[in-house]
Amino acid sequence: MGSSKPSMLVVLLLLCITSLEHTGKLVFADEKLIEQQCHNAEVPETCIQCLNSDPKGQEADKVRIAAIVITCLSNGSHVLAKNMSSLASSAQDKNLKSLFQDCEKGFIQAASYLSTAMDRLKSKDYDKTNHFVRTALEPEMDCKQNVVSLTPSVPSDVLDEMRVYEELSDAAMRIIDRF
Prior knowledge:
The chain is mostly helical. The protein has 6 helices and no strands.
């Protein structure tokens, strides 16, 4: 029995090494899929960053990758709605306050559109998914057009979040277009 312990140890060691090799290959393949899916986006880095922020991003297939990007968009719309609410509450000028409130309402509506987009994605209705992602981008574009000249009133981190929202919208639509 003394000789079976070392051979058992060797078998366990080989199983561990084999398991690690397969895990490494799997991660490599998933990273490659993420890069392929994000490659056609206008800013692939933003798409990749979103996917890497999800713990299951490395295990995702094409549809799950699109779902993760839509989730990042939805999170962004909620953040932007809160940012606009905060800007509206601190605005002294009535017109500025109204503008930020309109932006807030737009981002709240965008979150609803993105929820519908996710439902359409789960139903494999990819044309409608893209339609709702595109529709969710419109309030951001309207808001940006109105606030871009207000740079002192709109903090740069809010403008950056809006830029990321646009980049992720583009990424989602391009990924879904390739289904």
